[in-house]
Each structure stands twice: as structure tokens, then as C-alpha cells.
Design a protein that fits this description.
globular; TIM Barrel; five-stranded antiparallel sheet; 32% helix; single chain; eight-stranded parallel β-barrel; alpha/beta
Length: 372
């Protein structure tokens, strides 16, 4: 526990009292009408890419990221909000909700903060002050990621953080949004997903990286089915089985893929080393050292996995085979259908700067309910 003596006890007691008040009733993430709730992440390293975003087709724009330190203070806001006035004005003109994403790095620091009531109380105050001082912000999106077992105090501390922050946000600006990002499978049981869902407006589920950069086999990042447990069907079944209403689950959707060196062209081939991230596309000045998936697919042709219908490309070079697993218009439309059919809350795209040009038309169809 950080701090000592009466000060630490007073802070902890204040946090307990705040928690006892309880949050307002959660609100549904579902947008009224036939269309989907659509959110997207603007990553700080993509800089001015937001000028090309289809703002008219978004409900919420997440500002990625505001980094905390282990004591619950802001370590690096990446220019938010002062350096992003033009973005905030553009979002306001388009009636797009603007919400910062709160992170903490490295992963090992997350349970340290969450197990410390002083740090949790300080983080609540820090983030409440950020929203209070910035009228253009509509809430907070918590994204404290950990993939290893954590102490019980840390698991409970995340719910305490969300609960305390929700109460503060409601006092500052009624109707403020609180959402929480969670891993897809949580194999280490580091999260109390039901507890978080009862406090937050909705959970954003990591519906991607189901095959990640360092996996031993290549495969889809975001299959809907056929790759259990690495698919959306298994993930959403697990979460709704915990008692979380489907409408409180917003699925994260990747606008990038991975390109792996592999043993052969067939789906699921063993990898020969770590993969490389491949944006579907991106402005020339954004990560120019990375290949673009749409150009790769155009050059080598799109194949479809017979199990999941997910797109990939494969080609052979002098050192062996390469597979790139990506998204395309067909796979994205299938995700929209999945969300509608399952009664889920919506989708959140990461990151928006990697979206292909036809993405604007896709989102308009999703928003107006005209289908895929």
C-alpha cells in the first residue's frame, strides 16, 4: 500500500464510502433505431489522420491514449486535450462523442496500482479532474490490460476504480460515459467482468489478436466461428454466460492484420517466426516502414479460410512461405451481421487511421440500418 499512517487510512475510508453509494443504473450502449452503435479509436501516432475520418458515421471517438503512472497520476497525455483542439471541434460539429482511453504500461504495473487503495483513489480524482476541466470530453474509457494472474485485491480494485469513477463522473457531468476494455478470453481470471459490467455503461471486448504476432500458428485475428476458443462465438458465449447482457458488449474490430513467415500456404500453418503488423491501409506518413494489407492482397490475391470465411493472402519468397491474415469488406459485413443477430451493443474499430477508402460507405450502411 502506498503511503502510510492516518493519511492512507483516511483515503481508503473515503474510497470505501464512495463505493458504498453505488453507481447509477447502467445505460445501454445500443443506439435507438435500426443502425449499429459505431465507435472508433484515434491513435495518437496517426496524428492528423482524423481529418479523413467518416465522422458522420461514428457515434463515439476514443482518443488513444492517456497514460497513467502506477501512483494514479497522468504520466503522458500524448497532447490530450490541448493539442487536439481541431479534432475536438470537428467531433463536436459532427455530434460525435469524444472519450479519452486511459492506459497504464507496462502490464506489470496494472495490478500494483489496482491493489493499492490510495492509488485507486488518486486515479479516480485524476480522471474526474480531466473530464471536469475539459468540456469537450464525454467520459472515460478504461483500458488497463493484464494477461497474467493478479492478486484478489487488484481484481477487486478495478471494480472499485470503475465504481468510484462512475459516481464522480455523474456528479460532474450527468450522462457521462464510462466504458471498460476487457480481454477476449481472460484465461488468467484477472478481471471481474460481471462486476465491471454492472458499473460501466458497456464493455469493449478485445475481439482481435485472437491469433497474435508471436503465435506458433497463423490464423484469423477476429474469426466469428470455426476456430474455438479463438472466435467471437466462443467469446460472447462466455461473457453472456457470466450474466452480462449482450447489449452491454461492444466488439473491438481490427483494421489491421498480421503477416507471418509460415511453413506453407494452408490456413493454420506453423509460423517460422513472429509476424509483422499490416495496416489495411494508412496515410503515407503513418508507419511508412510497414506494408499495407490491401496492396499485398491486391498483388497476391485474396484467399478465404474454408472454416471461418476469413480473408488471407499467401505468397512464397526466397526464404519460404508468408501468410497475411486481414479484414475485408466481406468479413467486416459479416461482423455487423453477427453483432445484430446476437443483440450485441455495437462495434469499436482500432485504429481508424488504418481503414480503407470504402470503409466510409460501409459505415454509412451500418449506421442507417440498410444492412451489409
Amino acid at each position: 500500500m502506498r503511503g502510510s499512517g492516518g493519511r492512507a487510512g483516511a483515503l481508503a475510508a473515503a474510497l470505501v464510502a464512495l463505493m458504498a453509494c453505488g453507481p447509477p443504473a447502467p445505460r445501454s450502449a445500443v443506439v435507438p433505431g435500426p443502425g449499429l452503435f459505431v465507435a472508433g479509436y484515434h491513435a495518437w501516432w496517426t496524428e492528423e489522420a482524423w481529418t479523413a475520418y467518416p465522422m458522420e458515421a461514428l457515434d463515439r471517438l476514443y482518443l488513444f491514449e492517456v497514460e497513467l503512472d502506477v501512483a494514479g497520476r497522468i504520466r503522458d497525455a500524448h497532447g490530450w486535450p490541448e493539442g487536439w483542439t481541431d479534432l475536438a471541434n470537428r467531433a463536436s460539429e459532427a455530434a460525435v462523442s469524444l472519450v479519452p482511453v486511459v492506459t497504464l504500461h507496462p502490464e506489470e504495473a496494472v495490478p500494483v496500482l489496482l491493489a493499492d487503495p490510495d492509488a485507486v483513489a488518486r486515479a479516480i480524482g485524476t480522471l474526474a479532474a480531466l473530464v471536469e476541466s475539459t468540456p469537450t470530453l464525454d467520459g472515460i474509457h478504461l483500458d488497463l490490460e493484464v494477461f497474467s494472474p493478479v492478486p484478489t485485491e487488484a481484481r477487486e480494485g478495478y471494480v472499485a476504480l470503475a465504481r468510484g469513477l462512475r459516481a464522480r463522473l455523474e456528479a460532474i457531468r450527468p450522462g457521462s460515459v464510462l466504458s471498460v476494455f476487457i480481454p477476449a478470453l481472460d484465461r488468467s481470471d484477472a478481471y471481474d467482468e460481471l462486476g465491471l459490467a454492472e458499473v460501466a455503461d458497456y464493455l469493449v471486448v478485445q475481439g482481435y489478436d485472437l491469433h497474435h504476432r508471436t503465435d506458433v500458428r497463423a490464423g484469423p485475428l477476429a474469426a466469428l466461428d470455426g476456430w474455438a476458443p479463438l472466435d467471437w462465438t466462443t467469446i460472447t458465449d462466455r461473457l453472456t454466460g457470466l450474466g452480462i447482457p449482450a447489449r452491454h458488449l461492444v466488439m473491438g474490430v481490427p483494421l489491421y492484420g498480421y503477416e507471418w513467415p509460415v511453413e506453407g500456404p494452408n490456413p493454420g500453418s506453423a509460423t517460422r517466426g513472429p509476424g509483422v503488423a499490416v495496416p489495411l491501409t494508412a496515410p503515407p506518413d503513418v508507419l511508412p516502414e510497414l506494408p499495407r494489407a490491401d496492396a499485398r492482397a491486391s498483388r497476391h490475391g485474396v484467399r478465404r479460410d474454408p472454416v471461418s470465411d476469413m480473408p488471407y493472402y499467401a505468397f512464397e519468397r526466397t526464404d519460404g512461405w508468408v501468410q497475411g491474415w486481414i479484414e475485408d469488406a466481406t468479413s467486416l459485413d459479416a461482423k455487423a451481421d453477427f453483432v445484430r443477430t446476437r443483440g450485441l451493443g455495437g462495434v469499436a474499430f482500432f485504429p481508424l487511421a488504418y481503414a480503407p477508402s470504402e470503409f466510409r460507405r460501409t459505415l454509412r450502411r451500418w449506421k442507417d440500418g440498410s444492412g451489409s
